[in-house]
Design brief:
The protein is an alpha/beta fold. The protein has three domains: 258 residues, Amidase signature (AS) domain (Amidase signature (AS) enzymes, Alpha-Beta Complex); 112 residues, D-Maltodextrin-Binding Protein, domain 2 (3-Layer(aba) Sandwich); 63 residues, no CATH class. It has 16 helices and 13 strands. The strands form two sheets. The protein has an eleven-stranded mixed beta sheet with strand order 1-3-2-6-8-7-12-13-11-9-10, sandwiched between helices. A hairpin with a 3-residue loop joins strand 4 and strand 5. Helix 10 crosses helix 13. The termini are close together.
């Protein structure tokens, strides 16, 4: 089938749009056709949740703005949003739950608003792990009762269910499969890094508070963030630039305007020269595995690019915090209480009962995490919760990331895929993952860099330098293309 500009990313599309070789309208039509051929037919990836019925109209507007010389940085670029991000165009926002299949919003989430203001065309919604993978234990990531199982684009029938990573599984799989050049995901702990590395694309989990969460179905007020997923580092940096900023409706973003940067200016091929990088080998796959070989090859290249990579020891605490189930209960109750009348539940307790009414269809893997969350206390500022949150911060920051970075005099930590994501997630620190190669069976491997708060520019510089020198990413070959 005809697919315009495969693998060229945002820059390639922008060049073609500027030369008049394509239009935003023709591109959107082409991508919708591609999704129809690959998502429910052929490899049946189930990565797309909804197509925006207004996408072609939005593209027409951007084509006109380009003619008038009024284009934004993302003019005419199609972007998919994870299905927990609200839009005011009538598309449902469901978090993969049957209970929310008729849930709509009156206005765009702050992140969607910024994308549109930058000229992006919202192509539709991407599927996700139900309730951001906080519904139950034992379910494969990428599964939701409403949209089914997202399959791995590099091996739809070869790789096991859940291998696509979660919970922004549809966002990453969609970008990998060429549904759109970029997508927006969300992360609480590993949910951008996991699927981006699994699908051989670039994902940025920014500092918590750099991008507004207003209009995103919440999991954890202390850890949630949105972040870009794209084919390459330059595109991810451009999206981050558009998305970053203070929002009066999300107090976590109070410092975002002060801290945000022109991230595209940090795309430096010699960005790794003089970098000090720490790596804990216990966070890598076992010696001799295909994943480990990819990382070892990446580290060797990074050293030739001028970086000092040293072994460090990260002592992650086995402490079982109540923060996520506690915050989820109160955040979700607050969210559900404001949903439209068409939504049959208005609280977490009602959601549990709704799922039990048709358990085989609505909760085939159970709902243990929802039940755990519902068992938490009713006081949103309960002393035991506040104590756990302070302990999380102490173990992840003062005695965790901050201690390690200072002790070894590091710029960043290096890890494999999303291994070790929990500590920076609790600390609210940023990470970026980029393709590092493939195992002998074709399974993608990502290399991940993590820094301290507000140091996205450093991560982008290091990732870009490695990406340009390694050139590891290959597009998947898909039946029905």
């Amino acid at each position: 089938m005809n697919y315009e500009l495969p693998g060229t990313g945002i820059q390639g599309i922008q060049n073609a749009l500027e030369k008049g070789e394509i239009t935003a309208v023709s591109l959107v039509k082409n991508l919708i056709s591609r999704i129809e051929n690959l998502d429910k037919k052929g490899p049946a990836l189930h990565a797309a949740a909804f197509i925006n019925p207004e996408a072609e109209t939005e593209a027409e507007i951007q084509d006109q703005l380009r003619k008038e010389g009024k284009e934004g940085p993302l003019c005419g670029i199609p972007v998919l949003l994870k299905d927990n991000i609200e839009t005011g165009d009538g598309m449902p926002v469901t978090a993969g739950s049957i209970a929310l299949k008729d849930n709509t919003a009156e206005r765009d989430a702050a992140a969607a608003e910024k994308l549109r203001r930058g000229g992006a065309v919202i192509l539709g919604k991407a599927a996700m792990s139900e309730w951001a993978f906080f519904m139950t234990e034992g379910a494969p990531s990428g599964f939701s009762a409403l949209h089914g199982q997202v399959k791995h684009p590099y091996g739809p029938e070869k790789f096991e269910a859940g291998s696509v990573g979660g919970s922004s599984s549809g966002s990453a799989a969609a970008v990998a499969a060429g549904y759109a050049p970029a997508a927006l995901g969300t992360e609480t702990s590993g949910s951008i890094l996991s699927p981006a590395s699994a699908c051989s694309v670039v994902g940025i989990k920014p500092t918590t508070g750099l991008i507004s969460r207003r209009g995103i179905i919440p999991l954890s007020g202390s850890q949630d963030t949105a972040g870009p997923i794209a084919e390459n580092t330059a595109d991810a940096a451009l999206l981050l630039e558009v998305l970053a900023g203070t929002d009066a409706e999300d107090e976590a973003t109070a410092r975002a305007d002060e801290k945000k940067k022109n991230y595209s200016s940090f795309l430096e091929k010699d960005g790794l020269k003089g970098a000090k990088i720490g790596m804990d080998k216990s966070l890598l796959s076992e010696a001799g595995s295909g994943e480990r070989r990819c990382i070892e090859e990446a580290v060797e290249l990074i050293r030739t690019l001028g970086a000092d990579v040293k072994e460090v020891k990260i002592n992650e605490s086995p402490f079982q915090s109540k923060v996520l189930p506690h915050e989820f209960k109160h955040a979700l109750n607050n969210y559900l209480s404001g949903t439209p009348d068409a939504v049959p539940v208005s609280s977490l307790k009602e959601l549990l009962l709704f799922n039990k009414q048709d358990a085989r269809k609505r909760m085939p893997f159970g709902q243990t995490l929802l039940e755990l969350s519902d068992s938490m206390g009713n006081d949103p500022l309960a002393p035991d919760y506040l104590e756990d949150r302070q302990k999380d911060l102490r173990l992840s920051k003062e005695e965790g990331m901050d201690h390690i970075m200072e002790k070894y005099e590091l710029d960043v930590l290096l890890s494999e895929n999303n291994r070790g994501a929990a500590m920076p997630a609790k600390a609210g620190y940023p990470s970026i993952t980029v393709p590092a190669g493939y195992t002998s069976e074709g399974r993608p491997v990502g290399i991940t860099f993590t820094a301290k708060a507000w140091e996205e520019s450093k991560l982008i510089s290091f990732a870009y330098a490695y990406e340009q020198a390694s050139q590891k990413r290959q597009r998947p070959v898909l039946e029905n293309e």
